[in-house]
Design brief:
Strand content: 15-25%
Number of helices: 10
Order of helices and strands: EEHEHHEHEHEHEHEHEEEHEH
Number of strands: 12
Structural class: alpha/beta
Distance between the termini: 47 Å
Shape: elongated
CATH architecture of the largest domain: 3-Layer(aba) Sandwich
CATH class of the largest domain: Alpha Beta
Length: 270
């Protein structure tokens, strides 16, 4: 098809040209698993389009013909192969039937320097102990929608570029800058040194109500923790203020991505 660069038909399940897409239900190419290659994997036309528009260098596409053709405009100038197979061959390569019909893989770019991200930002999310990939994906989607400049990953966080996180974020994890903090919670000092007010989100007693915390003023970093134990005492003590979302009686917490969305909206002042 004109407009899709390097379209290549794949009929052999064992064709080595599609090894980047092989057995994703088992290895998923995570760098922290045996054999993992650390590739970024996008699923579906919308998410693949966002990968193509991101800083991550695309290696190849793989899908059924109709879905690859849907990407003709986005791939017209792309100098990588677009592998095409029928749904059965694709399912046998990937390891499961893919309803979205198309995948793309990319290399990870060099990690962003957290100091550089902090220096160019006004509103940041800082995460501690968020291990659920779906929560991470939803949180990044909320950050993109509500104008958060970047996400800093502290201790105990899972990989936000894991395939499930990318999918749940609808590809927005690929556009929100992220960086890893090496020393936790000591690196929060870097935020304070750059003029940030650090707000720890926690339902514990004595926390200031979100509506009264004034988070729409100046540079603000919101620290969010895992749904179970929440933020550690060390993280809360390292913050400038502990903030809670007012809730009706009988409910003591929210899903972390939901809590993040409410708080990110408060940062905007709208």
């Amino acid at each position: 098809m004109a407009g899709v660069a390097h379209m290549v038909e794949i009929s052999d399940v064992d064709d080595p040209r599609v090894d980047d897409f092989r057995d994703l239900s088992r290895a998923d190419r995570r760098p922290d698993r045996p054999g993992g290659r650390g590739l970024v994997i996008a699923e579906g036309v919308v998410v693949v389009e966002r990968l193509l528009a991101s800083p991550y260098p695309v290696r190849a596409l793989f899908g059924v013909r109709r879905r690859v053709e849907d990407l003709a405009e986005a791939t017209a100038e792309l100098d990588v192969p677009a592998y095409v197979a029928d749904a059965d061959v694709m399912a046998r390569v990937v390891g499961f039937h893919l309803n979205r019909g198309v995948l793309a893989v990319a290399d990870r770019t060099l990690a962003v320097d957290p100091a550089e991200l902090v220096a160019r930002s006004r509103r940041l999310a800082v995460l501690e102990g968020i291990g659920d990939h779906e929560n991470l994906g939803a949180l990044f989607r909320n950050a993109a929608a509500l104008g958060v400049d970047g996400v800093l990953l502290g201790a105990g966080c899972s990989d936000p570029l894991y395939r499930r996180s990318v999918r749940v974020s609808m590809g927005h994890v690929l556009r929100v800058p992220l960086a890893h903090l090496e020393t936790w919670p000591g690196d929060l000092k870097m935020l304070r040194d750059n003029g940030f007010r650090i707000a720890a989100l926690t339902p514990r007693g004595g926390s200031k109500s979100l509506r009264d915390a004034g988070l729409d003023q100046g540079k603000v970093a919101v620290v969010l923790g895992s749904e179970g134990p929440g933020l550690t005492d060390e993280a809360i003590e390292a913050a400038d203020v502990a903030v809670r979302i007012p809730m009706a009686g009988g409910v003591d917490s929210l899903n972390v991505a939901t809590a993040a969305a409410i708080t990110f909206h408060a940062l905007s002042g709208t």
